[in-house]
Amino acid sequence: MKFKKLILISVLGIATLFSSCKKGADDPAFSFMSRDARITADWVLSSMNETNVHVIKGGSSTYTTTKTYVFDGTTIQYTLKDDFGTQTTSYPYSYEININKKGTYNETEVEDGEKTETTDYWFWANSDKNKIAISFSGIGTYMINRLAKDELVLTQATVSSNTDGDGNVTSDTNNISMTFSKK
Predict the structure, then answer these.
(1) In this predicted model, what pLDDT tens digit does every residue of 103-153 receive, in sequence order?
(2) Number of folded domains that form the chain
(3) How many CB atoms lie within 10 A of CB 146?
(4) Is the backbone of residue 180 left (phi > 0), alpha (psi -120 to 50) or beta?
(5) Measuring CA to CA, how many Å separate 111 from each of 29, 80, 86, 117, 137?
(6) Residue 166: which domain range?
(7) Phi first, then psi: what are they for 77, rounded to 5°?
(8) CB within 8 A of 154, min separation 6: which ones?
(9) Alpha-carbon distance values, 37 to 25, 127, 131, 135, 139 (Å)
């Protein structure tokens, strides 16, 4: 009987250990590294999908603009679709971010040959305990869907709406998913 209780307690302890390690939706079931240790690294953007829908409703008219960005690791394809048609363009792109232990980050973005470098601050957005969201000053706040030793997946979904004095409604919906590989 004591042996069965010992086995039951051991199994429950191990199950609790494994379930407490996974914070993000697609995190590994278990990691020997803390979330702080996993997030602080040099990350290279390997893929991205972003969609922004801008809608203006006034009277009986509605005007919709949809912008999509798809990044495959080397090139961004940008598509603009509105009431006048669809335009698509592509250009070379790269993005790297170094997330430092002391709460700073350095980012380097090269967009169609134009290089931009920025240094700013980062922090855990929801709390130091849960660590399921990260905030980058100057960039925004992102949910962490996956944080593994060699992969980081960040997502962001925002919705905003404004009504002016004439009753015209402007709304924006933005969804982004970015996958990073450790450099």
Answers:
(1) 999 999 999 999 999 999 999 997 767 789 999 998 999 999 999 989 999
(2) 1
(3) 17
(4) beta
(5) 36, 18, 22, 11, 21
(6) 2-182
(7) -105, 120
(8) 134, 142, 143, 144, 145, 176, 177, 178, 180
(9) 19, 16, 12, 17, 22
As a whole number of angstroms, the distance between CA 53 and CA 176 comes to 12
Q: Six-digit token pair at 165?
A: 């004095």
**In contact, 170 and 56? CB cutoff 8 Å:** yes
**pLDDT tens track for 61-79:** 999 999 999 999 999 999 9
